[in-house]
Design goal:
This protein is about 10% helix and about 55% strand. The chain has one helix at about 1-25; strands at about 30-35, 45-50, 55-60, 65-70, 75-80, 90-95, 100, 105-110, 115-125, 135-145, 145-155, 160-165, 170-180, 180-190, 195-200. Strands 1, 4, 7 and 8 form a four-stranded mixed beta sheet that branches. The chain has a four-stranded antiparallel beta sheet with strand order 3-2-5-6, with no helix packed on it. Strands 11-10-13-14 form a four-stranded antiparallel beta sheet, with no helix packed on it.
């Protein structure tokens, strides 16, 4: 009997809260969905402002959705921020009383190239010719004798490859693998957002 009474009370409070929101005709709301070029859309700061003055802010959920409620009628700008991604801005955004302004799902944040570490490399023969179509594995060095595989690349027509990584301090190991070529490894220490270059010489396996 107590469980039924508690459920009824919860349902009544929920209905009352919904009714109160529905009856609030003096303010509006803004909702939208943020997508990102790389990584998770969660945790993007959504800042509502008028001019340079911040009015309020919220963050996106794990799906990139956000809602800003109880917004006074007026014209606003919306700024989207997350480390490692470019800053997004939408304006003007007009909010009307009793209405929800939907910004849709076309809010896409690209990767901020200035906040990424790049490992760029090339593979050449001993004669200095580029070697296309060979595999380069990338692993993070987590201990003296332990690595964690992350990704791999296949060299292009010019023998080049590139990895994009977080700018956090870390040590990586690149390993060249290809049929008929001696395996070769090189370590790269990343400590900031910059371009790190490495070159491999593809030596044929002795017969």
């Amino acid at each position: 009997m107590r469980l039924i009474k508690a459920s009824f009370t919860f349902s009544l409070l929920f209905l009352l809260s919904v009714t109160c929101l529905a009856q609030d005709k003096t303010s509006g709301a803004i909702k939208g969905k943020v997508r990102v070029e790389k990584g998770s859309p969660a945790g993007v700061a959504v800042i509502l402002r008028q001019g340079e003055r911040e009015v309020t802010r919220t963050t996106t959920d794990k799906k990139g959705d956000f809602v800003i409620a109880r917004v006074a009628p007026g014209v606003y700008g919306v700024t989207l921020r997350k480390p490692g991604l470019s800053v997004g801005s939408i304006e003007p955004v007009e909010v009307k009383a009793g209405k929800t302004r939907t910004l849709g799902d076309r809010l896409i944040l690209s990767v901020d190239e200035g906040s990424i570490a790049f490992i760029r490399g090339s593979v050449f023969t001993e004669a200095g010719r580029s070697v296309p179509g060979v595999r380069v594995d990338l692993a993070r060095i987590v201990a003296e004798n332990s690595t964690q595989k992350i990704d791999f690349r296949i060299t292009g027509e010019t023998g080049e490859f590139v990895f994009r990584l977080p700018p956090d301090a870390a040590k990586y190991r690149l390993t060249l693998r290809a049929d008929g070529i001696e395996p070769a490894s090189k370590d790269v220490e990343v400590d900031s957002a910059a371009v790190y270059r490495v070159a491999f010489t593809a030596k044929p396996i002795p017969k």
